[in-house]
Amino acid sequence: MRYLNPKGTTPIAHSLKLAGNDFPEPCIDCRNIIILITDGIEACDGDPCEVSYALQQQGIVLKPFVIGIGIDEGFRETFECIGHYYNASDEEKFGEVMEVVISQALNSTTAQVNLLDIDGLPTETDVNLTFTDHFSGRIMYNYIHTMNYRGVPDTLVLDHLVTYNLRVNTIPPVFVDSINVYVGKHTVIAADAPQGKLLVKVDGGAQYRGLQFIVRQKGKMETLNYQEVNQEEAYLVGNYSLEIPVLPKIIIDDVAINQSATTKVTIPRPGILNLIKSAPGYGSIYHRKSATEEVWVTNINNKLKNETVVLQPGKYRIVFRAQNAKQTLYTVNKTIEIRSGAADVLQLY
Fold it and tell me: Which fold does the domain 12-106 belong to in CATH?
């Protein structure tokens, strides 16, 4: 300090900007903190608030500390947008403020996350919580929400110098933005996350083992999850649509998930259709919904002489022509009814 010569100006914004270059390369266990000590306000037409925000947004520093020396209290708002502001009116007060600032810069604080059910009670748990820096988006913490031995949400230790966004990784996720925690104060963070479970069951058989289906929120096309049949999965309370990729495809548009309950959907056990061909060829399978409505289900494999198709119970039409047939009249047109759990053979010649 003895070699510094005052120039009579206060370039706070410029000083903050250059200070951002003084830190080493980013590291996981480091805290980059700026303590700004000033006896005046910005005097060089810069915007220290904007520079401070940019440094935080880029993840270079945490929210700075500002110590004003003998500055009029009327300028407090000018500095509070930069960071945590303290006013030191004399030498003794300056020493006290420095102790407070150093203590706050080095200490953490505690918090808990209450995941609220449909009744507003903190009963939900076992969900991943992701805390990110509100300004930079950098991931700060990942925790699995846990109930302690007393049956209440466990305590988390957080850096109080960061403003957080919280992502509760339910399906779909829940977000809580702009969370501030304070040193020496236990903060309770609440998020509405009422959940129930979904189970899609198959009646017997191994044909659908490992099958995954698509879950979407009702009225939306975005895929929320690929869930395996015969496996439970938790979702937020609400209405969902399911797309189950069997033959023919099953669409269920309105599945209600209720608090702490398991919604069960059962799909019939399929049947097996063995197609015997005189030669590989071209064709399709159609679902006969009625005498006037037939819906395409799948194409026949034109590389195989014989093939097996797993189909839901129902009535079907098979249209086929061998590759080596050179006339349309050799088209084979047959119908069959598939029974749950049964195997049928159909000759396509």
Answer: Rossmann fold (3.40.50)
